[in-house]
């Protein structure tokens, strides 16, 4: 394949004509490929070397880590789909960008400053292809084609997209991961202005619920028994909010989640009821009444985790094909490739599926970055970083000045090895949505490199303290134990300081009201299901 080479001629001209030097700098700016999946747990990425690494490897995503950096302590500021995406785009916490809940949280205000807009203004060709899930149509992109049906959630099969200018495209008979890959490749090959550097957000629905595997992936892992994570049989002792949550694999997974087909002839309303039975506490069902409790829980887990990993596998392959294209076209050497997900996910840890909690599995986001010539291959970093840091970092890499109102910090010098000074010594987290979908109590908290303090405040008043050094699985709540009072006091002081810095000045009652208020979604009525 012919390599794109638009830099060399300008370099030549610039040697002769000093006035061309600005143009030269512009053209040498890196391209940015920002790859994001939805709900991808670190444990389901083999680059992180965890318990599924050998069972279900992700060799293509791993390429990014092997050729660049793996961040081990990268966190989201609000572990839920739309809000995390809004934080990434704006570089600001949910209470500043205004999009703090998926359910009853209205639409994202697309008129505000985002990093794609700033890059576009600075001469980048910008595009977003795939999942968007922010209500309003994308702004700041020269091209977009984003999932539209199910209020932007999209479907695995027969996905419907909105394209630039509001055109609705129904991809009948197609699988979402495949369509998104083909669209991304087409845009890279022929859809963009090649005289400009590009920033492409390549974003999958996978592996979000309902975990529908695509063509060719249905039998992947079929003959294997997937191991359980260490906390699979957690009893939630000492953790009231965890005990209350409706996200247990055995207790709250519905029939559709594990692909049990409904009887023939049900009305659409009855079919929906049948499929979703299991979502609510006490809706007990079993595929076989002779199973023991442990057998039933494992049966549900095996069905869920295999479909989840099948969705991951298809996304990993689709990512590999785009990485291959970057190599073949010669674009790879001047392209920053980011791999991330909008949050982490429980894939059996604590007996759960889903996200939302500030516990490690859903608080962490994967973050792998390749930037040839700038990041030493195989770098591993343990700094405390946040999703709001993406915007300033990518602006920094593009040579665009970072506006003062962005709350995140550029970690470009960190990943380039130019500094070993940490950006921060603690991170703040806040989750607001309740009760839908999983009855996770709103909470905020602080995490340092060793401790985590969480306050569940909505209709309980419970503090939890964990020592991540001695209890990395967060099974032992140390709050209220006298021996740890000084640790708690210190963390509370640091929490107050962080809240001041981040302009968080609401009372607990005002925070509760933010959860209670239902802001109607005004986005267009969906065209199809
Ligand atoms: Ca998500």
Brief rundown of the structure:
This protein has 529 residues and is α/β, with parallel strands linked by helices. It is 30% helix and 14% strand.
Task: Give a written overview of the molecule.
- With 529 residues, this protein is α/β, with parallel strands linked by helices.
- It is 30% helix and 14% strand.
- The protein has two domains: 8-214 and 313-425, Alkaline Phosphatase, subunit A (3-Layer(aba) Sandwich), CATH 3.40.720; 429-526, Arylsulfatase, C-terminal domain, CATH 3.30.1120.10.
- The protein is built from 16 helices and 16 strands.
- The strands form three sheets. It has a ten-stranded mixed β-sheet, with helices on both faces. The chain has a four-stranded antiparallel β-sheet with strand order 13-14-15-16, covered by helices on one side. The protein has a two-stranded parallel ribbon with strand order 3-12.
- β15 (451-456) and β16 form a beta hairpin.
- α1 (8-16) runs antiparallel to α2 (21-28) and α7 packs parallel to α11 (293-329).
- The longest helix has 37 residues, at 293-329.
- It is globular and about 65 Å long.
- It starts with 7 loop residues before the first helix and ends in a 13-residue tail after the last helix.
- Calcium ion (CA) is lined by residues 38-39, 81, 208, 342-343.
The largest sheet is: 10 strands, mixed
DSSP strand tally: 16
Q: State the domain count.
A: 2
CATH topology of the largest domain: Alkaline Phosphatase, subunit A
What do the pLDDT scores average to? 93
Question: What are the bound molecules?
Answer: calcium ion
Which CATH architecture of the largest domain would you pick?
3-Layer(aba) Sandwich
User: Counting H and I runs of at least 4 residues, what is the number of helices?
Assistant: 16
